[in-house]
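Please check this today:
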Amino acid sequence: MRQQFGDWFSLLENMGDLDEAECALLAAHREFLRELEITAMTKSFKMVLLEAFQELDGWRQAPAFAELAERSWQVLRRRRPLLADLPPEQAQLASGREPQWLRYWMSNPVNAWIGENRKAGEKRYFTAQDERFAPLFQVAEEDRERFAEWVQELVDYRLAAYAGRQSVRTAPVVALPVVPQMGTELPYFPNLKIARGHFKTGRADCEEYRLLGEGFGRLDPIRHFIARASGNSMNGGKHPIRDGDYLLLEHVSPSSAGSITGATLAIERQDEAGDNQYLLRVIHKAVDGSYFLRANNPDYADIAVDDGLTEQLRTFARFKAVLDPLQLAVGQRLLREEIPALFGETFNPGNWNSGHVFLPEAKAHVLLVTLNKQGKADEHRYLDRWVDERTFHWQSQNKTTPEGKRGREIIDHEKRGLSIHLFVRENRLENGKAAPFVYHGPVRYRSHSGSGPMSVVFEVMG
């Protein structure tokens, strides 16, 4: 393919799969996209840096080196198998803000991209400009979204190919000095949609990891994984599965599935184009010994598994449980408007633009904390800070007192069956836009002092 067409997007252009605007975009940036597709990779870092650059909206505004290094650290934490590429002294650093990490990142992928490691005469695509990582070419504003999609497609491809070559999945991952959390980190496949209506095409790539707490028996990251449900066919019965639910699944094969009658299984087949499709159904056995697939929703007809369909189907995974989104959100970055959905709520600016939200139906207090209060009037600069990795000092709004309704709910939240959830961000803005919060999970009241406002010490649970 590369000999004939030069690169992937030129092949798409030749096949007529790009429209006129996309052809013009390709013509303007063909060299860079080709470089991204073929650049040498002895480690994963060049692609990790580009993923971080895109997450920081780097095509619009060049990110500072420190900011880029910190986000690259977060990308590596999310793509945990790639941590094996780090030397032990870097993998054991506490965070991506450490000076040693910035020096290491500058001397490796940053230098590789800005040209200090390139041979004389080789074209450069990025440069150092006012302590920022800046592209040497411009992407038109109307093209940035599509261009970023193309770049991410190539980044995902290169990292997948690299993982295959290096056997990253089986490489030992150096443990980081973080607070131990109870549970098991399982692969999460955001692009793998398990359909609950009709067969739905999905991709089992772009793997991430999510920490799942105790209470699900013995979990094995090799066999167990997480995916999203899609559709309505299983939304019925005593245990409905709704559109968008997070599903805990266990890989099975025909030889390891055991008895499947009455079990809820994810079934895989390939369509005419060779793409994998997935369907969630309860397996039933008819009187004549044949099998059929049944939905929980009676609006959907049974699917008889005849000889023709048998040849197409493969038992893919056994359904284990529907997971609470909050269990999977710990450690994730979430914009303010994305947080309500974790609690089954709809975003309402009048309610959610404050730092303390109470949700009566969910019986939950949600604390949205910005540590750096620059730009706030003095009376609103609440003293919020981390005491240590497990302890957070939070200051309430000025009207909250220990004797008042909200103060009592904070102090007695466990007795009253209320939960408190902590979301924290460093600054209000990130690259000129509203910064996301990091979810630290539920917290437990430990002590308080003062009144109007109250100063409360919380223990991070888990």
About this structure: The domain at 184-323 is CATH 2.10.109.10 (Umud Fragment, subunit A). The chain has twelve helices and 22 strands.
